[in-house]
Amino acid sequence: MRNSGPNAPSRPRSAFNLYMQYRLSHDEDLVARPFIERRRLIGGEWSAMSQQQKQIYRDQAICEREKYLKEFDEYKKTDEYKEWIAKQEISQSLKRGKKTTGKHNVEDGLGDGVSSKFRRVPIFTQEFLEYNRQREMSLRHLRKQVTKLDEETALLSKHVENLANAGNNLEQQIKAAEAQLSLEEAVVQKFCKELVTTFADLPVPTLDKSTRSPSKGSERITLSSVDSYLSRLAELSSSGNHETLRTTAVEFLRAAIRSKKLTMCST
After folding, report:
1. Over the stretch 134-145, which tens digit does the pLDDT of each residue have?
2. pTM
3. Full set of structural domains in the chain with CATH
4. CB crowding 186-205: b at 16 or more within 10 Å, else e
5. From the CA atom positions of the chain, what is the Rg in Å?
6. Where are any strands of DSSP class E within the chain?
7. Residue 96: Cβ-neighbour burial (10 angstroms; 0-12, 13-18, 19+)
8. How many CB atoms are closer than 10 A to CB 10?
């Protein structure tokens, strides 16, 4: 129910509400969604809009506000509005009268205080005009607060949407990293198998330090000992005391590359 009379001008809409109404009139899918989701989606769109795009709806809101104030000023001059105000005053007076009916005389001493708190404002007086002016100022302040809250709601909706998008992006990055890691592990595994095939017939000397008199032994390459085998081979090859081992290792490498048994290296 209107609080300014049954035929009072319609209240002006905020810029955000104008945009929301525009979107709902052009998108049936939005209309079918729940209110909260619908407001969140439109709020996200509103936050993403530039100030220039928003200004179109702000200008419309200003025009509506100015039109409303002008029409309401004219409406307040009508007999209909004055009669409505008078009826409201009478209705409020009757309600107050019903609340006080049947009370004990001991409450009579409070009568002056109650009547002064809820006293009627006589119409067609300067006091009445001042009362209306104060109400209009209060309404304008409330409209500004509503507009501000609408914009803050739109901003928060956009923030929630950004967080959701960031979470999705992070999940995709993790999946991509896992796929890349799996690919690289497969490459390393393939390379190790090729090395085992290449040096299968080339044992490297080792020293058995588990006894008091160290004895010489040999180590053959396996999938589980590729790192230790290559480290020992590199150590012996660079020492200058195992030239035959070094030459043989180089020949094995070249032969494997020529026969394409070792595809991860080139001469």
Report:
1. 888 888 888 888
2. 0.40
3. 1-93 (1.10.30.10), 184-209+216-259 (no CATH)
4. eeeeeebebbbebbeebebe
5. 44
6. 204-208, 215-219
7. middle
8. 10
